[in-house]
Amino acid sequence: MKFNQVTVLAAATILIPLGGTIAHFTAAPKAAVAQSEQLLLAQASETPTEGKGEKRRGWDRSKLFEQLDLSDAQKTEIQNIRQQARENGPGREEARAAREKMRELFASDASSDELRTQYQDSQSLRQELREQRFETKLKIREVLTPEQRTKLAELKPERRRHRGGKGPQSRTF
Predict the structure, then answer these.
(1) Which of 3, 20, 72, 113 has an alpha carbon within 20 to 30 A of 94's alpha carbon?
(2) C-alpha torsion 140→144→150→153, nearest 10
């Protein structure tokens, strides 16, 4: 009887960490697939942090412009596309407020129907943001030459390493 208990404990100490490791490596390919589905110009509609100019999250947009050898006209056009995207469509602040309201509803006595409605509103805003980003990426992509698109694809892993692999799919522009 005692032998069985020791065997079970030994097996559990081996299998539990092994299960966590397997779960981690099973989830990793899913994340890689999600990242690879992003276009070369991921998260194009993101705005630079106020007061930091072109620098944002550890990389310098003007340096990227130089690496891609963008003409002044291309730089201006990309900046105009990004500005237009910021001015139109749903804002990140609205989506953040919707998520916060969802947290508050979960902590309150709100009904399941109220939670479902808020969840749908939040998801709708997030989808609008994704669609807006996608359209912005397409517009910026049209500004780049085929060579610049290739160069951007080559630079993407470097930027991701520079950022420490954090954040949504290594934002560009």
Answers:
(1) 113
(2) -20
How many domains are there within the chain? 1
Q: Write out the residue range of the structural domain in which residue 120 sits.
A: 60-152
Query: Per-residue pLDDT tens for 53-81?
Result: 444 444 567 788 888 999 999 999 999 99
Residue 33 lies in a domain: no
Q: Which residues lie across from 59 on neighbouring strands?
A: 56
Q: Is 23 domain-assigned?
A: no
Name residue, tokens 């201006």.
76
Kindly state whether residue 79 falls inside one of the protein's structural domains.
yes
The span from the CA of 147 to the CA of 69, in Å, is 10
Q: Is position 68 within any domain?
A: yes
Give the pLDDT of residue 155. Answer: 86
Q: How many CB atoms lie within 10 A of CB 157?
A: 11
CA distance linking residue 49 with residue 26, whole number of Å: 35
pTM of the full structure: 0.55
Element (H, E) at 110: none
pLDDT in tens, 3-28: 666 665 666 566 666 555 555 555 54
User: What is the rounded distance in angstroms from the CA atom of residue 15 to the CA atom of residue 149?
Assistant: 46
| Alpha carbons 102 and 108: distance in angstroms, whole number | 10
CATH number at residue 98: 1.20.120
